[in-house]
User: Which sequence fits this backbone?
């Protein structure tokens, strides 16, 4: 009969007696059945015990002699595990992982600690408050980081360091520090701007909102003309302009002599349209009540004070150009249901003008155009060459039959790809569409504009210049004596030859106020784009608008000076709306100040005498190989033109600024930037320019052209020497 064993926890004893040849033998049999009779052997390991946050570590385990009913668990992992396995974990904090093996009432544990190193910003500090126009020094120190940037300012910085910045308004800077796994932390530092100021968004998309901000110390009265009166002397106001709008602040204060005075501040807010013309619809075919938008696209005041002409575009919310809203296609009375009135504002005085005519111009009745396309193919445009080539091909292929076109491409060289021609096939056969090969240099913007104007003949045709760029002028002076090399010369020539300049500011990195002024002063239009796909859309829209638009003619107020024209219209929903434009009468815009905007150095010159001079131009004279400072033949040829200019213009002096790329520590970059500037200084002295007319400084890596050197050509454009022409 089978005997049932005793429970494992019971100690069984059996006693048996044997008598053998007179001996009495006692045998004691001891049987023990404990829980750990087949005790497990547990191994538990990690591929790393110390990691950076964002890294992965693998935990491995193996439970030998495990039973089927054993339960294996691991901290942070759901469910029961097998007796052998591994798992990847990504701890963001110092963590302890415990492997537990349970068998009935007993359990055994093994643990592993993982230390996690996080990127840290130990400090990010600097000036708390500075006067308007001053610089601020920001300092930082980090730990466990591989990349540091100041968001929207500098994409590549040292892991520990400092930098000088010149904020245009109260600014909160954000320092972002990341490790190699792109785990990032941020710190903020706000720099308040002292002194009076008024500012607004640098750019808005259509439909977006932004803030106007201002501070006028000890102001008695502040208002934004046409928007709100009785404002506080400092504050902000939300705005949602439908089109590019100039806001005028009227501020009343007391002078130091306790006399009442009124000052004005202007803030222009560019609005990017996101819907370009997609098609054409007659007003009668629209659904009832569809909203319409009017835009003044050009102003011509060449016959001032007798008349001003405005070109107007009308679109609907679907992006259609709307025709059929003015004579000769409807009556004057019907047109005035939509075109309500014009309000001119000149030096604060308002004039309501109801006596004006409006007519619709369509392609068949429009004036033939001579159009010069002047297109930027500098290195910074390289990602858009293909899109620009395609847009240019389509513009040529779909040109108006009677128009003549000329094509100019430019970087720091000027390429007349096609002279003025009427036949589209002839023009296309002249141009090599090869993604910008042969260009990719710097930006001779003024020379290119002049070259484009020289191709437009003096005829009865309408003369148009389409100028597209994404950067600042930096190379025109090397054509001094051959082309116009200053902004004032370009705009005066355009007005003299009656050339309307339409400017396209691509990417938001160009001198936007200058391009806007070129358009405003010549009777053209300004587009601001941030997407390469929009280039073709704008070219197609311009092709339509050159020959299809509404024209308003009126007799203006005779006061001389800048004026704002507000066209009040019915938007087809029963509401009144306004579109605005500015006219600059008798060259009343200060091109010199606009030309300088954005090209002054971030840090003041070490020689204070130069800080009070007018900067006329900023030009790149030399580029360098990595860790080199010797001048090549191309640089020497450019400097020879600089020498010629200085010898013929004794009232000019020059500032030589050396720069490095972003590689290396601050001390090294400062040193090589000084060496590069010194090489140019020595060359100018050798050519006979007096030392009293030259100041030479190194800027290190504080003022890069490119804040992200993701291509070698960008790094080389940072390794440069610039010269600034200054005049008392």
Assistant:
């Amino acid at each position: 009969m089978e005997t049932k064993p005793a429970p494992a926890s019971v100690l069984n004893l059996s006693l048996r007696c044997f008598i053998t040849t007179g001996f009495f033998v006692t045998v004691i049999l001891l049987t023990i059945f404990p829980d750990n009779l087949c005790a497990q052997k547990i191994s538990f390991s990690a591929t790393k015990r110390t990691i950076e946050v964002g890294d992965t570590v693998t935990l491995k385990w193996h439970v030998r002699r495990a039973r089927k009913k054993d339960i294996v668990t691991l901290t942070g992992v759901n469910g029961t595990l097998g007796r052998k396995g591994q798992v990847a974990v990504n701890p963001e904090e110092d963590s302890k992982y415990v492997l537990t093996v349970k068998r009935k009432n007993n359990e055994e544990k093994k643990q592993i600690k993982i230390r996690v190193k996080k990127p840290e910003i130990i400090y990010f500090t600097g000036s708390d408050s500075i006067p308007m126009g001053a610089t601020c020094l920001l300092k930082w120190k980090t730990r466990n980081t591989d990349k540091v940037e100041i968001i929207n300012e500098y994409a590549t910085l040292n892991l520990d360091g400092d930098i000088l910045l010149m904020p245009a308004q109260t600014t909160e800077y954000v320092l972002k520090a990341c490790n190699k796994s792109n785990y990032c932390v941020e710190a903020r530092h706000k720099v308040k701007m002292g002194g009076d100021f008024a500012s607004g968004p640098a750019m808005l998309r259509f439909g977006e909102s932004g803030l106007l901000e201002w501070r006028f110390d000890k102001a008695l009265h502040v208002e934004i003309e046409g928007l709100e009166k009785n404002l506080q002397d400092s504050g902000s106001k939300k705005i949602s302009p439908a089109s590019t709008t100039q806001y005028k602040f009227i501020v009343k204060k007391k002078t130091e002599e306790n006399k009442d005075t009124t000052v004005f501040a202007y803030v222009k807010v560019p609005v990017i349209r996101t819907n370009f013309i997609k098609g054409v619809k007659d007003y009668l075919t629209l659904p009832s009540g569809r909203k319409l938008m009017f835009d003044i696209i050009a102003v011509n005041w060449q016959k001032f004070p007798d008349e001003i002409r405005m070109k107007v575009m009308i679109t609907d919310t679907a992006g259609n150009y709307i025709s059929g809203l003015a004579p000769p296609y409807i009556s004057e009375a019907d047109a005035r249901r939509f075109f309500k009135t014009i309000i001119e504002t000149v030096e604060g005085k308002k004039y309501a003008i109801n006596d004006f005519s409006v007519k619709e111009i369509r392609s068949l009745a429009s004036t033939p155009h001579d159009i010069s396309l002047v297109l930027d193919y500098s290195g910074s445009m390289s990602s858009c060459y293909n899109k620009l080539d395609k847009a240019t091909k389509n513009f040529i292929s779909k040109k108006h039959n009677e128009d003549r076109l000329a094509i100019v491409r430019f970087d720091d060289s000027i390429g007349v790809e096609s002279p003025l021609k009427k036949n589209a096939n002839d023009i296309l056969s002249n141009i090599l569409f090869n993604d910008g090969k042969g260009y990719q240099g710097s930006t001779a913007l003024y020379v290119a504009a002049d070259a484009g104007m020289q191709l437009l003949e003096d005829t009865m045709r309408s003369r148009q210049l389409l100028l597209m760029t994404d950067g600042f002028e930096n190379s025109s002076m090397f054509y001094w004596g051959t082309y116009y090399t200053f902004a004032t010369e370009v705009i005066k020539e355009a007005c003299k030859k009656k050339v309307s300049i339409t400017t396209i500011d691509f990417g938001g990195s160009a001198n936007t106020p200058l391009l806007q002024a070129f358009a405003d002063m010549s009777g053209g239009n300004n587009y601001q784009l941030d997407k390469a796909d929009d280039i073709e859309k704008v070219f197609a829209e311009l092709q339509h608008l050159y020959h299809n638009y509404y024209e308003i003619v009126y007799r203006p107020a005779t006061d001389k000076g800048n004026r704002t024209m507000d066209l009040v219209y019915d938007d087809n929903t029963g509401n009144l709306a306004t579109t605005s434009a500015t006219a600059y009468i008798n060259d009343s815009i200060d091109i010199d100040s606009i030309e300088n905007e954005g090209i002054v150095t971030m840090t003041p010159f070490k020689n204070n005498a130069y800080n009070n001079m007018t900067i006329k131009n900023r030009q790149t004279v030399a580029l360098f190989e990595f860790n080199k400072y010797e001048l090549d033949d191309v640089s020497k040829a450019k400097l020879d033109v600089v020498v010629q200019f200085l010898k013929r213009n004794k009232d000019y002096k020059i500032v030589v600024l050396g720069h490095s790329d972003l590689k290396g520590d601050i001390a090294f970059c400062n040193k090589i930037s000084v060496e590069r500037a010194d090489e140019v200084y020595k060359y100018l002295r050798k050519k006979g320019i007096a030392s009293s007319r030259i100041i030479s400084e190194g800027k290190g890596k504080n003022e890069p052209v490119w804040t992200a050197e993701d291509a070698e050509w960008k790094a080389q454009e940072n390794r440069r020497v610039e010269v600034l022409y200054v005049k008392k």
